[in-house]
Structures are given as structure tokens and as C-alpha cells.
Write a structure and sequence with these properties.
Helix content is 83%, strand content 0%. By secondary structure, the protein is an all-alpha fold. The relative contact order is 0.07.
Length: 282
């Protein structure tokens, strides 16, 4: 009897220790779940690099928990599980159920962590693509903002107007190219698990780009009008100069003098020149 009581006491001690081990595994599961949820929906901004590191740490900790469960399960299978009729009590079945729950929850979390780890690893790549685009766009938009702040240059002659028009058209081409760079960066960011910060930065840059786009289109339109006015002015000035410097033509065979520019026509051309001068100043 004493020997049986001793064995029973030892078994109860083992069972109590086993219950404590299972409870430790159970208590860790909500912690692991919370860490996973925090990685998926962080309360504070987390860099892609930090997210990868934290995910790898969670994956390692989950793996350790699975290894600990394997040891606990081995103890149950070899030393504690019912082996004789009548030993399969509700309490024994409760231990079986708890172990099954721990095992399935651990494996589910581990699979999820591995999946997210792969995604977060891709985040680093997509973040690098987004950052590369931003580094190319940012200095351009700063120069563009500075150029816009200086304002539109006033050409002094037709050639300068043509030069400024060409420069404005090049600026428009650059703006369109940089918009493609920005959009491509945004597309890369959309592939990230979390891209709220990238979205905010893209929206800010896009708004600044739209200001430049509108301004360059405005400048092109104004320069084009200047070029048209200057060309007309040059043509009209040539007509006026030719009329003023023209000598009376010899009479024709019929004795009638050759036609000359009338004073009224000259006045019209001079008024046109005056109007075009006003348009250039506008």
C-alpha cells in the first residue's frame, strides 16, 4: 500500500507539473496573437525594416513554443496518458483537449507568421523602389517650385520669346516624365502590406506636381501668344517701313502714276503696331 501511495503521489506531482507546463503554453498564445495583430495593424508607424525584424523574432519565438509543446506532449504520451481501463476520466480528456487546442493554435499562428514574413520581406523591396522614385522626384520638384516662384521671364524680342517657349515646352516634357516616375513609385508602394505613409507622401508630391503642371501650361500659352504678336509686329513693321521709304513710281503707259500706300492704310498699320505693343506688355 505504501508503494502504491508513493507512486500515486509521484504521479500527482508529475500531473501538477504537466498542468503548469500546459498552462504556460496556453498563456503565451494570446501574447503571440497580439504581437501578430500589432504587426498587421500597428498603433504607431513602423518601418518596413523593423517590421521584418519583429516578424522574424515572432517566428523564432513561435518555433520555440512549438518545440516546447513537443516535449510536453512527449511527457504526456510516455508517462501520463491513460493506459488502463477506467483511467480515461473527464480530467484526462480535458488534458487531451487542451493539448490539441495549443497545438492547432500554435501551428496556425506559425503558418501565418511565415506567410507575413514573406510579405514583409517583399515590403522592403517595394519600399526601396518607392524610395528610389522619391529620391529622383524630390530634387526636381524643389527646383520646379523655385522656378515657379521666380516667375515667367519677359522676352525682349521675338528670338527670346521663341527661346522661352522652347524652354517651357522642355519643362512640360520633364514634368510629364517625373509624373510617370512618381506614379510608378506609388504603384510599388501599393504592393506593400502597409502603405499609409507612402500614400500620404505621394498625395503631397502629386499636389505640388499639379501646381507645376498648371503653371507650365499657362506659360506655354502666354509665350505662344507673344510669338504670334511679335511675328505680326515684324510683318507690319516691314510694311510700314517699306511704305515710308518708298519713292513715287514712274507713270505707266497710260500716264497714270503707280499706286502708293494710302495715309489711311498707314494709320491702320501704325495702330496695329501700337495694339501689338500693348499686348506684349500685358
Amino acid at each position: 500500500m505504501d508503494e502504491k501511495l508513493k507512486k500515486l503521489d509521484e504521479f500527482n506531482g508529475q500531473l501538477k507539473a504537466f498542468d503548469g507546463q500546459v498552462k504556460e503554453l496556453e498563456d503565451w498564445l494570446p501574447q503571440g496573437r497580439k504581437r501578430m495583430d500589432d504587426l498587421l495593424n500597428p498603433d504607431n508607424p513602423v518601418t518596413a525594416e523593423d517590421r521584418v525584424v519583429q516578424t522574424m523574432e515572432l517566428q523564432s519565438d513561435t518555433q520555440l513554443q512549438i518545440e516546447d509543446f513537443a516535449k510536453v506532449s512527449e511527457t504526456w504520451n510516455q508517462e501520463l496518458q491513460p493506459s488502463e481501463p477506467g483511467e480515461s476520466t473527464p480530467q484526462a480528456q480535458d488534458f487531451v483537449t487542451r493539448q490539441s487546442t495549443v497545438e492547432s493554435t500554435q501551428q496556425k499562428l506559425y503558418d501565418e507568421v511565415r506567410e507575413q514574413s514573406a510579405k514583409f520581406g517583399d515590403d522592403v523591396k517595394y519600399l526601396a523602389e518607392f524610395t528610389a522614385g522619391v529620391k529622383k522626384f524630390d530634387p526636381w520638384i524643389q527646383k520646379a517650385d523655385a522656378k515657379r516662384a521666380v516667375g515667367m521671364l519677359k522676352p525682349k524680342n521675338l528670338q527670346e520669346a521663341l527661346d522661352q517657349l522652347e524652354d517651357a515646352k522642355k519643362w512640360k516634357t520633364e514634368a510629364e516624365e517625373m509624373k510617370l516616375v512618381l506614379d510608378h513609385s506609388h504603384e510599388s508602394a501599393q504592393k506593400m502590406t502597409s502603405h499609409a505613409d507612402a500614400d500620404a507622401k505621394y498625395a503631397s508630391y502629386k499636389k505640388r506636381w499639379e501646381v507645376i503642371d498648371a503653371k507650365v501650361k499657362e506659360w506655354i500659352l502666354k509665350y505662344e501668344k507673344m510669338v504670334v504678336v511679335w511675328k505680326k509686329q515684324a510683318e507690319t513693321a516691314e510694311k510700314v517701313t517699306a511704305a515710308i521709304s518708298a519713292k513715287p513710281a514712274p507713270a505707266g503707259e497710260g500716264g497714270a502714276p503707280a499706286p502708293e500706300m494710302k495715309l489711311e492704310d498707314l494709320e491702320v498699320h501704325l495702330n496695329a503696331l501700337k495694339e501689338m505693343f500693348i499686348q506684349k506688355q500685358a
